[in-house]
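Batch manifest, entry 17 of 40.
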Amino acid sequence: MFRIIAALIRRVNTLLLRLRGVQMGKGALVGRLVNIPRNTGSISIGANTYIDDYGALLSYTVQGREGKISVGANLYANRYLILDCIESITIGDGSRIGPFVFITDHNYNTSIPGNLNENDLVSHPVHIGKNVWIGAHAVILMGVTIGDNAIIAAGAVVTHDIPAGSTVKGIPAKP
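Output type: structure tokens
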């Protein structure tokens, strides 16, 4: 009985997000309490993709730009995924994302003295290729491109581009 109710909740959540403007391919589903609070029209989720419970896809409008999030087809993202975007985050088809992963395309420009605000943000797009595996608690920072078939180990902090087919681990992530 519980499984039936949980499946129904996922389908209702998915329908509500579609009605709010999130572009979702056939068979795409989102889990319970996946938060998409704003800019829903700038978010697309591919066919047969599942984003598990308690995640957040955050697209902000900053300095007149609306962040764009594009999640590929046949992708699985485990619980507590956070995509934090003011410019662009793209994740390729067939990728697998572990729990508690954080991906962002921006940061504060800390070279500016005084109090930081949204005008002090700097951003660079993040691109994650096809069939990439990202382990639990990994962090991917702005401006990173991860090639197809790469593996990002659990707990890695990715600060630079990762070639296709590579396996990286550590802080910062290295082969």
